[in-house]
């Protein structure tokens, strides 16, 4: 998929969710334990892919750029203390979710209030931070199963946030703000396009055809600006756009660019 097609298809998101990306490695042991009981009780189950903690769910329709700007204001330096194992009922999907519930903290509440002051959000009686691990068909888990699992449940680990994610109504990831960004390690690919007068979009591809991040670079007078989180010193996205302009704004940047421009970008660690 081309970058331009991606923007056209995902610009407006009908029904979205913003959530914390969590460190899955900390949950591996407890997931194996619960899974062993599901197998012992012969309960059909599915593993939840990309476990996360929901911050807010927005049923409205919003510009993706607007949501991404809001995500970039959310701090990732957050952790959650465990509360216990719970079963959450998914009424719309007709599934039961085996979850680890965590205690709400000040940062979580403040983030929710900030988002709900700018976007229409689904209101809940209580804020219950939780991570869903497995889904099962409704009514297939007995009280005895739940008590057996909970009785000898290993210590639930403290939860560490490593990023912020944006999901669309089909529960597909649309944007990720990672805990640490490694722009110059040679693992990313970039796409640049002009979207207005002195305004450019830089897309960061880590894997596949869907960009992990999209940043706006613009020029006002003689000064350049970028809306990425790391705005200290010489901005790497600004440098890329400047080199792209000098190269004549090629549509196939990298394959058609030769000489000093390509060599300079390669030295910076940019795969083009």
Q: Roughly how much helix do the residues carry, as a percent range?
A: 25-40%
The main pleated sheet reads as:
5 strands, antiparallel
Provide the number of structural domains: 2
CATH class of the largest domain: Alpha Beta
Number of helices: 7
CATH topology of the largest domain: Cyclic Phosphodiesterase, Chain: A
List low-pLDDT spans: 1-11, 179-186, 252-258
What is the CATH homology-level superfamily of the largest domain? Cyclic phosphodiesterase
The helix/strand series, from N terminus to C terminus, equals HEHEEHEEEHEHEEEEEEHH
> What's the end-to-end separation, in Å?
17 Å
Examine the secondary-structure arrangement and name the CATH architecture of the largest domain.
Alpha-Beta Complex
Gyration radius from CA atoms, angstroms:
22 Å
Q: What is the strand content?
A: 25-35%
Q: Which structural category fits the helices and strands?
A: alpha+beta
Average pLDDT: 76
Number of strands: 13
| Oligomer category | single chain
Shape: elongated
Could you explain how this protein is built, in words?
With 272 residues, the protein is an alpha+beta fold. The chain folds into two domains: 13-178, Alpha-Beta Complex (Cyclic Phosphodiesterase, Chain: A), CATH 3.90.1140; 189-267, no CATH class. Helix content is 25%, strand content 35%. It has helices at 3-10, 28-40, 64-71, 106-116, 143-151, 236-246, 260-267, and strands at residues 12-22, 46-47, 52-63, 79-80, 82-90, 95-102, 130-137, 159-167, 173-178, 189-196, 199-205, 213-220, 223-226. Strands 1, 3, 4, 8 and 9 form a five-stranded antiparallel beta sheet that branches. It is elongated, with a radius of gyration of 22 Å.
């Amino acid at each position: 998929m081309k970058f331009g097609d991606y923007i056209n298809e995902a610009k407006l998101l009908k029904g979205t969710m913003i959530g914390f990306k969590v460190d899955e490695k900390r949950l591996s042991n407890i997931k194996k334990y619960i899974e062993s009981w599901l197998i012992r009780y012969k309960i059909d189950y599915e593993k939840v892919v990309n476990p996360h903690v929901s911050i807010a769910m927005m049923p409205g329709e919003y510009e993706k750029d607007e949501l991404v700007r809001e995500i970039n204001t959310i701090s990732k330096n957050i952790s959650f203390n465990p509360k216990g194992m719970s079963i959450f009922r998914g009424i719309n999907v007709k599934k039961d979710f085996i979850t680890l519930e965590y205690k709400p903290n000040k940062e979580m509440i403040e983030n929710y209030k900030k988002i709900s002051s700018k976007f229409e959000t689904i209101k809940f009686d209580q804020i219950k931070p939780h991570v869903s691990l497995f889904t099962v068909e409704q009514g297939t888990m007995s009280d005895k199963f739940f008590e057996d699992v909970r009785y000898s449940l290993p210590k639930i680990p403290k939860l560490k946030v490593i990023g912020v994610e944006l999901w669309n109504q089909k529960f597909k990831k649309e944007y990720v703000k990672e805990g640490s960004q490694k722009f110059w390690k040679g693992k990313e690919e970039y796409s640049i396009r002009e979207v207005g007068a002195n305004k450019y979009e830089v897309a960061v591809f880590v894997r596949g055809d869907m960009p992990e991040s999209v940043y706006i670079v613009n020029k006002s007078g003689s000064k350049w600006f970028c809306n990425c989180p790391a705005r200290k010193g010489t901005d790497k996205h600004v440098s890329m756009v400047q080199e792209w302009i000098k190269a004549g704004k090629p549509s196939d940047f990298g394959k058609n660019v030769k000489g000093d421009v390509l060599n300079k970008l390669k030295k910076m660690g940019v795969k083009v």
